[in-house]
Amino acid sequence: MGLLELRDISMIYGNVKALQDIQLTVRQGEWLAIMGPSGSGKTTLMNIIGCMDKATSGSIVLDGLDLSALDSKSLTAIRRDKIGLVFQQFHLIPYLTALENVMVAQYYHSLPDEQEAMAALARVGLQERARHLPSQLSGGEQQRVCIARALINYPMLILADEPTGNLDEANESIVLGIFEQLHREGHTIITVTHDPEVAELAERCIVLEHGRIADERKHKSVVREEKGA
Amino acid sequence: MFWQMLIGALVRQRRRMFMIALTVALGTSLTTAMLNVMLDVGDKVNRELKAYGANITVVPKAASVLRDLYGIEANSGASAQYLAEADLGKLKTIFWAHNIVTFAPFLETKAVLGQGSDEVVLVGTWFDRSLELPTGEVAETGIKPLKSWWQVEGDWVQDNDSEGAMIGSQLAGKLGLKTGDDLDITVAGGEGKERLKIRGIVNSGSAEDDQVFVPLSVAQKAMNLAGKVGRVEVSAITTPENELARRAAHNPKSLSLKEWETWYCTAYVSAIAYQIEEAVGGSRAKPIRQVAESEGVILQKTQLLMLLITVLSLIGSALGISNLLIAGVMERSKEIGLLKALGATDAVILWQNLAEAVTTGIMGGAIGYFCGLGFAQMIGRSVFGSAVAINTMVIPLVIVLVILVILAGSIPAVRMLLSLRPAEVLHGR
Amino acid sequence: MTKYSMYSKMIIHALLRRRSRMIVALLAIAVGATVLSGLITIYYDVPRQMGREFRSYGANLVFIPAGSSQALAEQDIDRAAGLLPRDKVIGIAPYLYERVKVNEQPIMAAGTKFQEVKKVSPYWQIRGKWPAEKSSGVVIGQEVAEFLKVEPGQSITLAAGDGTEQKVTVEGIVRTGGNEENFVFVDLPLLQKMLKKEGQISVGQVSIMATEAELAALSKNVETQVTGVSPRLVKRVTQSEGMVLGKLQALVYLVTIIILLLTLICAATTMMAVVTERRKEIGLKKALGAENRSIILEFLGEGLALGGLGGIIGTVLGFFFAQAVSINVFGRAIDFQPFIALVAFVVSITVSGVACMIPVKIATDVEPAIVLRGE
């Protein structure tokens, strides 16, 4: 049984069928990439997996828990405790430092811990920039802070929506390097991307088209994983 | 292109436009209401102060008639002279006729009541007369409108009632008289008794409570002074005295021609008194300082108070509006960044913002103006029972203020945003 | 670090590191609080200050002899005066009236205390000067002056009914347009001595700051406690004063309400605009797993902090404004009213808090995905 199981997931807005009958299983420690052109429903799918939106029909089970049966408040709790989010827009609170931004995630979860937050920043190579405001950080640095924030509460699942979409090449390599590191450490990662090169880094890739899974590919990294599993 | 963008912007951003229009409407309505009330309050309070009764007394020029004070006896002086009753109508033909609210004539003498030998003061007057003027207007005169603080038990005497009388409460108390009782009057130096009926009892809290009041014609007949009046009390709406007025009051001839014209054409109590002397033959008109001075003081203070409150409200609403505009412009940082990235110049962005603000400002301002008039009327009716005069001078003032405030609110914020680099704003820093 | 210190940190940084927004919001609250505190202070102060001005109309209460007597004992007046609240009494002027002869002409003389007359009847206009106390200087009315053809500085001789004569100096001539112009005003003890009526007066005029109702109560008190004195309200003065003062207060009240309403709406909308700008932040926090309650409490904290600071600033400024008004209009200072300050402070905090909460509540009800997606 996978960490995450989606059965017959559909999302309908009025007349628009954003997602139709999605079946998906994600194993623990797997790195899945979701690809597709814009409008294919990939962001919608990510929002559903990330407990930020509720599907119109179908079931979604995370670590044995049926998310479709939960109310808004419980979904918030799941999001807080079990999922780490990284956005394309690297949303950071503009008036808090990098360190404080990471501590905010701790604050809502349990208790803010400055040392742990510092350690998280160190893992993404930003301990020197801990006291800087987002306006003083480059795009890549901001995204890395987001990653550190996503990891701080030891989430079960890391969701990244176009994590390198707004970054230049140099920063893109750095960030992707961090994701590879996380994969090696055994984290479960789902990345949504339109960039095939980014998708290639993942073990498996599903392609969405008009709200349906049109294709599924396995990459060479699968081989590595099966050996070590 | 500019207009398309402008209209597009206005339509799409309804919520924000609505907020700006609302705030401008609020500020405008407040300004309009306060300015209209402030400009009219002087007149309104002045009318209310007429409750204190006469502020001008008109006596025959050569008279030296001594008066009573709180029911103490007095003698009439030598060779008392009189004013003509027929001249009273002329009071409403002077330059400041419109400011004369009401007046009443008096003809006083001593009389003995019933069998007693004590003398009381008998006053012949008008009670409540509608006087027809040469202009066709009708003026309400007499002691009923003049002495509003009188409390009457029973009825007022009608002016054509040749047997009616009203008696002061103190006197009635001493003699044990009630409404409906008969009253025998023998006028000093007159012929025989008159029998009158007490129609009502007067409670005034002053010397009048010891006097007897009869219609003027009755007193004139008893004293054999047909068509004559001893003095007239006038209640007029006046402008508070200033240095010019005081100099004129002392000696009108000491003024230059221009000063004299200014004084004559302003409703100073001394100017009105002067004009009354011109109208009523052989008269001397004196301001009753107790009333005239106090009116002036209270009027000035009320107007100053209202002025300061208005200033506070104007500053408050100006700050409020410009503040809200700044907050609104701050919200638009992303859009401005985008426009700049697209190549818009600073000037274009500035003008676009101003144009939006001014357009919504005009809409909000128009609505606010009429709401403000509504507020002013509400105040006028609730407090004074009359409508507040709508002063058209307020309109340009309000327009100027609103424009100034919109400029003050939009420009600093936009200037601040113009200094941002597009990349910063677009990428959410 | 504890949760509370993180909470405070977030609020403080939200305010201090977003200085321009904070200043805008603070200014809005401060303006509202200033207007509130200033106008309410003025409203409560107007009756007292204006009431004081109305005393320029003269006596509003007179003491006359009770029953059919024509004379009052001076000591009775003093006892009656003792029953009146000292701090509200402007002055008490005694008058003794008697007919005297000047150059064989009958004239009314009034014995009085000039110091008190100045206080009770401030509208007297004196040409010349007021006589010194306990002197033989007199003030004569305009009519009398014209009648006798006398100027200030000249002397006249008063003759009582029994032939006693007293030479006096005309120090000043009084103009009022009223009855006073027909009298000769003499220092009270001097006239009493001349008429052999020591300790006697005819009437006492009182100028006291009191409403009609208060005067009625005081009169009743005097009537029952001091026999011989019959107090009468001068209706012309008291009634008119009550009515005009009532209208003035109603005017200030209505004006205050309208100004307040509009100013507070302005402040509230400004606060709301400043908070609305942060919808993305709210969406982000929800995405991070914050509960609605937490987010609302954070913004509430900011709102209360701003409201508190703005409230203090506004309350102080409002008091200074009211003080400026009082000094410029009435020439008197006002005391600081802690109650009004408290009300202004509390209202500022409440308005600020509520104005923060409304947009936050709306934003937290929206799914974070929508907020984060839509720019």
List the helices and strands and how they pair.
The complex is a heterotrimer of chains A (229), B (429) and C (375).
Chain A: E1 4-13, E2 16-26, E3 31-35, H1 42-49, E4 57-62, E5 65-66, H2 72-82, E6 83-86, H3 98-109, H4 114-123, H5 139-151, E7 157-161, H6 169-184, E8 188-193, H7 196-200, E9 204-209, E10 212-218, H8 221-228
Parallel strand pairs in A: 3-8, 3-9, 6-7, 7-8
Antiparallel strand pairs in A: 1-2, 1-4, 4-5, 9-10
Helix pairs in contact in A: 3-4, 3-5, 4-5, 5-6
Chain B: H1 2-12, H2 14-49, E1 56-60, E2 83-84, E3 100-113, E4 119-125, E5 129-132, E6 138-141, H3 143-146, E7 151-154, E8 164-168, H4 169-175, E9 182-187, E10 193-203, E11 211-215, H5 216-223, E12 228-229, E13 231-236, H6 243-250, H7 257-264, H8 269-279, E14 283-287, H9 289-330, H10 333-341, H11 346-384, H12 394-418, H13 422-426
Parallel strand pairs in B: 4-11, 8-10
Antiparallel strand pairs in B: 1-13, 1-14, 2-12, 3-4, 3-9, 3-13, 5-6, 7-10, 8-11, 9-10
Helix pairs in contact in B: 2-9, 2-11, 2-12, 9-12, 11-12
Chain C: H1 3-16, H2 19-54, E1 61-65, E2 72-73, H3 74-82, E3 89-102, E4 105-112, H4 114-120, E5 125-128, E6 137-141, H5 142-148, E7 155-159, E8 165-175, E9 183-187, H6 188-195, E10 200-201, E11 203-208, H7 212-225, E12 229-233, H8 235-276, H9 279-287, H10 292-330, H11 338-364, H12 368-373
Helix pairs in contact in C: 1-10, 2-8, 2-10, 2-11, 8-11, 10-11
